[in-house]
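Key idea: predict the complex, not the pieces.
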Amino acid sequence: MRKYNVDVVYGLYDDEEKLLHAIRKAKNNHLEIFDVYTPFPVHGMDQALGLSESRLHIAGFVYGALGTLTGFLGMTWIFTRDWPIIFGGKPYWSVPAFIPITFEMTVLFAAWGMTITFYTICGLWPGVENPQVDLRTTDDKFCLAFDTNEVSVSDAKSFFSDSGAEEVNTKSI
Amino acid sequence: MSAGVVAPVRRPLIEGHKTYHQITEDLCSPTEKAPTRAWVIAFIISASVLAFGLFCIVWTIWMGIGSWGANRTIGWAYDITNFVWWIGIGHAGTLISAILLLFRQRWRTGVNRAAEAMTIFAVICAAMFPLIHVGRIWVVFYFFPYPNTRGSLWPNFNSPLLWDVFAISTYFSVSLLFWYTGLVPDFASIRNRATGLRKKIYNGLSFGWTGSAKHWQRWESLSLVLAGLSTPLVLSVHTIVSFDFATSVIPGWHTTIFPPYFVAGAIFSGFAMVQTLMVITRKILKLEEYITLEHIESMNKVILVTGTIVGVAYLTELFIAWYSGYVYEQFAFFNRAMGVYWWSYFGMMTCNVISPQIFWVKKFRRSVLITFIMSIFVNIGMWFERFVIIATTLARDYLPSSWSYYKPTWVEIGIFIGTIGLFFTLYMIFTRVAPVVAIAEVKHILKVGGDQYIGENATHSHSNDLDHSHSKSHSDHGHH
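Result:
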């Protein structure tokens, strides 16, 4: 099991709107949020938390371009340099016939590259046991966690009771 | 916030006043209970059919292609028909998950998981046929361009058959990534309910997912780009399959209409297979509140549209054959409708073009029984379509002296039935291992698709304009 070596104090909410409300409130009170765990992607949460936009799609473009070049230049090299063969009286470098495979290579590289990047930067991989704050966050609870080094437990508790959390707990993860 | 705007005409997509917890409960529990008697019996049947199919495959490889009915005139027959049929079926999953995601069609969430699984299994079934047909399956890796000691000798990149290798392997692997990435959060839901070994297995499957905010953000970004990539990909796959025929110089195959016509047919047959599976799945796993009549009706509309497109394509082909003034082309189409295989043309026209027209009537679109029968009809009709294109065209070629007739042998029929067994075996294992409906995605649309929020049974007061106010007014709801 991986460890973050952090003591967290966390509150559980039963609705995403309450969570969003609490996030905004914590931001206004300048309380440093450790992380938020939700059962599904809550829209508006990225802005509320001030998360910068994911650059994953830029990586996807780069991988795709790499695929395009690999496919097209690979076929070009093979059919004009390495082993030129005439098929059906057409030129060695018959570009239109290379389009389908170039396209497939673009998609293949972009999809695999992005997916592998996604799992790597998120620290998700088969066999990894990431610490979980509360098991119910994959069911119906929306969890907001503070690092106890940043926010004292008593401050956190009063914040959670004001913002309508159902339950407040502490945990070392 | 997660809501957006809901038009008053929208009807609920999730019935039964579900809470988030109830959704987890309903969708995880089929994987947690012991299999029912019906499941065990059905599994034994499909596994036995699969075993017979494997026997027939081994028979073919052992005895040689001579054990098939294909002959010198009709070199492509049953197995290519089956290959194209399965590949077509494999198109609906990506269509539902990718194209409907881009079009923001919320009803996709009820059926996308199972449809994507179906896609992957159908592509596996499809891949069996060319793999067997190459004859020497143990050197099948020659298809891939890798530096080798034979020269290096490369495959022919100008050949549509090689494009097929690239298209189908890309399609399979990208669909698998898309499907699995969607499954990861749901495997985490199952993991957090489990104990012991089961927990360990599902932790492995869920890659250690925690549901952290940044992970969700990246997950959505990845899903969106994969959807954007899969959309042209799915269209390219059947386009390239149609090139196998369209780039040849055989009358009846050498037509520019093939790519769009094949893609429409693929979506048509894919949706039919989704309907066949969904009608059974929702009944057996008691998911009627998640896969509602609304979903079935939406899919029936797609079937009606694509079936009609296919019908227009058939008529266009006939018209162009006549209008071209080219006797060989004219003969090819006359032969399809009136020749030795007239019955398959008749079956194709009846099942694909005429029968879906009943879906103009709302009552039929919303009838589960009619939907099920129609879905079988469409599956049969689309099989006939491929048979018509392949066997009928080859049976009457340029030289009357080599005209021939094709009948499948028991080995070929066995392999085909075997792939159906393979398909159902894989699907049934899937229903035991993974949630058949995407849990996180259904929760995500609950406040815009749940019947307590919209529709005539809504218990929550509702303003028809922006529903920021609406979500707030229900913030006391959630779960009790």
